[in-house]
Each structure stands twice: as C-alpha cells, then as structure tokens.
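Weekend entry, working from home. Most of the wet-lab plans are on hold until the incubator is repaired, so I used the time to fold the two sequences that have been sitting in the queue since the last round of cloning. Logging both here for the record. First:
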Amino acid sequence: MPGDRLAAPDVLRGLAIAGTFATNVWVFADPRGPGAVFAGFAGEWWLDTALRAVANGKFLALLTLLFGIGLELQYRSAVRRGLRWPGRYLARAAILFTEGLLHYVLVFEFDVLMGYAIASVLVAWLVGRSARVRTAAACVAGAVTVLLVAGASVATAGSTGADVPLPPYPATWTGQVAARLTDPLLYRVELVLIVPSAVVLFLAGSALLRAGLFDAAAVTLRRRLIGTGAVGVVLTLLTTLGGAPWFLVERYLVAPLVALGLLGLVLEVLARLRGPAGPVRRGLTALGRTAMTGYVGQNVVAAVLFGAWGLGLAGALVGVPAPLRTGVVVAVWALVVAGSAAAAGWWLRGHGRGPLEALTHALLRGRSPASRRGARTP
C-alpha cells in the first residue's frame, strides 16, 4: 500500500455515504415517517420508483463491503504490531453499537450501525481463521439471509402495503423518541436481515482485499466485479418491475451484486485518472474519511428539514404535484451531500478524524477528543 492511507477506499466510502442517504431521504420526506417503508411511499410515480430502485440497498451494500475491508486492515495492523486479536476491537464494536443505539433512539429508525457492530464481533473472530472456515461461515450466513428474505417475501406477497397496521407517527421530536423506544420490534426487525447479510459482505470485503483488489495489476479482478454488477443491474430492473413483493430480494440479494460492480467500476475509473483530484473526488474523499459523522450528520439534517418539529418540509410537500415534489427531494439530497462533503473537507484541514470518529478513538484510548486534536492517523 503506497503511503499511509489508501485514497480509493475513502472515495468509495464517500460515494457509499452519499448513496445511502439517497435511500434515507425518501423516508424523511414522507409525512408518515418510517411507516412509508412498510405501507408504500406517498405521492408515488414512476420516477420516484426508479430513483429508489437505483439506491435501494446498493450503496449500503457497498458501505458494508468497505467496512469488511476496513476490518481486515485493522486485523493486519494488529498482527503486524504483535497485538492480541480481536482484543481491543471488541471494545470498538461495543462503542459502535452504543453510537448506533443513540442514532436509532434520537434520530433515525433504520440505523445500520447496530447491525454492523453485532456482525463485526463474529467476523473479527473469523478473519484470523483459515480460508475454509471463512468460506463456510459466509455460506451459512448467506443461506440464512436467503431463507429469511424468501420467507418474508412469501409472507407479504399478497399485501399491497396499505393493509399494514401502523401506529401514527408523532409530530414532536420527543414523541418520535418515545415511539422508537416503545416499538423496537417494528423498527429494529431489519436487524434480523442486516446481521447475516453483513457477515457475508464483511467476509467478502476481507477476501477481496486479500485477493489484491487495490493492487495496480488487479485489472482482471476489477473487470469480473464489473461483470457481476452488470448482472445485478438487470436483476434490479426485473425486481423493480415485480413490485413490492420483490423489495427485500432487491435490497438484500440483488443489491450486493450491484455493489460489487460499483466497487470494480470506481476502482477502474480511479486507476485511469491522471493529475490532481477535482472537487468531486476531493469531496468524496473527505466524506469517506468522516464516514460515520457523515452518515449520522446527514440524517440529523434531514430530520430537521423534513420533520414536523423542524422546518416541516415533508408536510409542506403534501399535495404538491409529483414532478415538483420529486425535484425538491432530489435537490435536498444534493445540497445535503454537497454540504456534508464541504464541511468534512473544512474539518479535516484541522483534524485527523471526523468528530464521531475522534470520539470513538478517544473512548478507546481513554482520552478526551480535545487531547487528540490534530492527530494524524493511517
């Protein structure tokens, strides 16, 4: 690896964070809140469906693959320094789970950090085992994911979403917090799918790094990934046309194929770029270096913009013609992503980590974030 950091994973993480928000923004923009995920989104028209299909699970799967690559890098670092593994990583996973829990309770019903933390504990143990053990574990977790997706899809095949009983979504922030605390089975049921699928993708990310994914000579591997992504794009079109019964299939079984294609495509493009990075690449790199802060921060901003207790944009869009409403939602997405990338770039000029990343590091080291200000890390 040239230098202290690999630039490509940062660009990919930034893209994944921006794309994940492209899914989340539709949840915030619906006046019914997270119930829209279960009952169908308000003001539905073909472009909304297409935009959600483009983002649904693809960038989250990409982020999950990159988390696995990061976990493999941490494992290598521990081995190189002669440290016990997983050792302190278990404390990191506990901190991540706590941050995800707070994110869920205070901000957003569909947090993924909690699921990542749970899955990472298992994968942290697996990365040091033999290839046979890792492959067997990935196959078991993959089979569990397929069975769960198939069972849930069959169980909801006859439902249009309109017949799903949902509690009314509170208009106040305190009411929303109380709803998340009292309805965890509704809002956290996705963890049953997130955890096994994350195990598969974490191990896949680890395996890709071991296969030399970021090596300059890995052209064949990248092209195979692009081919896999092309298959995923075709399947995405088919599952989207299939409607609501295929939503989970698209999100958990098809989306990882597209994410692998994105991984290979972005790396191939970066390998061909010459000269200094432009504003887009610099923005994605900064966002990728502050990925956790960006993920949580974008959701906080969206909650303020769309929530009835904030600026109330979701309610204001009720009755607005679909093309205009879609334009507003897309514009909010673009402005929030651009703003978070600019803020990340500004922050990194004086700090080595994003705010939440610095907090995690400080908790692991037992030191305050202020005492680590300006620290540069690989």
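Second, folded right after the first finished:
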Amino acid sequence: MSLVSLKDVTEIVRGVTFSKAEGSEMDSVGRIPVIRAGSIQRTLLVHEGQIWVEESKIKEHQLIRKNDIIMCTSSGSADLVGKCAIAGDDHYVSFGAFCAGIRPNPTKVSPSYLYHFLNSPKFRNWTKNSSGANIKNIRVSELGDFKFELPPLEEQKGIAAILDKADAIRRKRQQTINLADDFLRAVFLDMFGDPVTNPKGWEVLVLKEIADIRSGVTKGKKLNLETAVTLPYMRVANVQDGYLSLENVQKITVSPSDAQKCKLIAGDILLTEGGDPDKLGRGHVWNNEVPNCIHQNHIFSVRIKQQKQIRPEFLSAQIASQRGKRYFLKVGKQTTGIATINKTVLSEFEPFIPPIELQDKYIQVSNAIGSFQNKTPIENIGLFNSLSQKAFTGEL
C-alpha cells in the first residue's frame, strides 16, 4: 500500500459557475446542459434536473467523460455532501458549481475501486466533517489533498470486482423491492382512487383533528445529572422512506420530563422534518422495535387519537403518497439541496378517511408485500456497507 493524495491519482474538475440569469430550463442552440447535485443518485441522472448554459461558459474538460465520478460538494445537508455517482459513458453534459468531477487516472487507480472507496463509510465519515455552519461544503483543494492508502492496481481491480458483484446483487434486490412498491401503489389506486384528487369522495379531515403531533427532544440541554436518564433515541438517520434503519441506534441523556414527553409507543408515525425534497415527510410506523425509545427534535411523532377511525399504517401510507408529497413540497421551506416542514404545516395536512374495513384490507396486502420483501435472499444495504468497510480497511 502507498499513501497518496486524491489529486495524485485523479484530475479534480471544478463545476460550471453561472448566474441564475445565465441558465435556462429550455434547450436551445449554443447551450449545453448542466446537471445539479440532485442528479447524483445511485446512478448519474444526466438527463434529469438539467439547466442549459451558454456553450462559452463551459470548458471542454468540464464535459462528463466515462468513469468520471461526480460528487456533491456543497449542500444544506451534511448527509448529501460527498454523495457521488460514476458516469457510464461520455456525455455532452456538464455539472454545476455545487459539484466536482473526479477523473481517475486509469494507470494509477481503478475507477471502480475509487468509486466504491468514495462511497465507503471510511470516506463518508470524513465528508460529514465538512466545513460550514448552514451550508456544508468541501473545497476542491481540500478534496484534492485528501490522503488515503492505495493498494497496487491489480489488487484494486480485484477488490473492485468483488464490490461490483455485491453492488449488482444489491441493485437487483432493490429492483425487486421497487416492483413490489409499484404493485402496492396500484392496489392503493384501485381501492381508494387517486390520493391527490380523491375521486371517490372520501371524507377529508385535518390531521390535528385526529392526531397529536409532537416534536422530540433537543440535544445539548442543561441537565441535572442526578435525575437524568439515558435512553435510546430515533435520529433522522434512523427514519427512512417507508422503513426504519435500526443498525445504529444511539443513546441520549435527558431529563425525566423529556423522557416521558418524547417516549414512543406502538402506532406512532415517525416523520422527518427535513431532507431531500422528494422524500420530505418521509417516515414509518413505530412498533416498539427498541424498548424505552424516544425521538429527537428533527423527527415528529404523529399519534392517532382514535385508531377505530384511521389506522396508523393507512395514514402513514397516505402521507407517503403523492397526496402527502405534493402537500409538503408546496408548504415546505426549501434551501440548497434540502426542504423542511414544521409542526404547524404538518398539523394542517388533510388526509381522507375511507371505511375502516377497507383500510384493514389494504393493510393486509401491504403486510403481505412487506413479508415478501423481507424474505428476498439478499441482505440489506447494511451488509454491503460492512463489506465495503472491510475492503478499505484491509480485511477483505
């Protein structure tokens, strides 16, 4: 192994800088599409989220080439900084100033190895310490100076081959999950109609009329250590879109009153107050997965007053539907890369209330699909991260 800087084995390409007035959402002669940080997903979405910029603003080396790794370097969310995707081909497309292009030198570093390393827990832990109070960012010079241990090229290729296969398996499992989710959405449409327009005319109520909405505990409060208690708590990282990630449940020391106020009970719906715009209000129903658990202030818990009127699982599904997503996007506050909602706008959400028997039928189908997804032969994303961790700490 040799210790190298990222700039020793790659070319770091700065993103295109342009003013709002210089960009256009329409294709026209003499303009080149520029993608933004939102196009950096599990794959690079070069045909989505484009802004068209005059050709003269873009240098040739800023066009995306095969094996370029495009990274988000600035965002309002520390979780998004460092997020990256690799280009599978050359594209007559560039990327904006909140991104950087990392162009591997194939004689020194395997592009696939580098891509997996930049997505590994080891590197992402470094990106989470990026500078900035409100806008998190990594300077291009800082990125280039990042040092890491690099094995010989043939060894890199061997490790990359293992991780490529594991990633392909993970993607196939995700495709299976996506197909099951599509089927469940089709079931919802068939049973209840379009969740946005409510064509079947189900009764509509305001969320605050049928549920109690609570914020969680704030970290950093002064405490009387003689009476304080230490409990597990749900963070934003634990609450995902349609499931709970419980691989890393941390603990927090709080006052007895906060412990009581923020205690979770079965049937509570956990919702995040911020995140990617398309996942705003993401959440899941709590079923006492962790005993004596509370939640932090960046997560709301929605506790239904009368479950004979509406089931938590059905309300959660409706919040996750286009009815919820469109509402939250409309009322949420948006900053660079993230959007947020507050307790007031969440309280004003208007779910529709079909007969409880119909809700229960939908929940039966949903549970059956969930059981199928859990029985798929490939383990969850946590195991891939574990494999990645071993690969870049010399344990593979």
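Plan for Monday: verify the second prediction. The chain has a mean pLDDT of 88.
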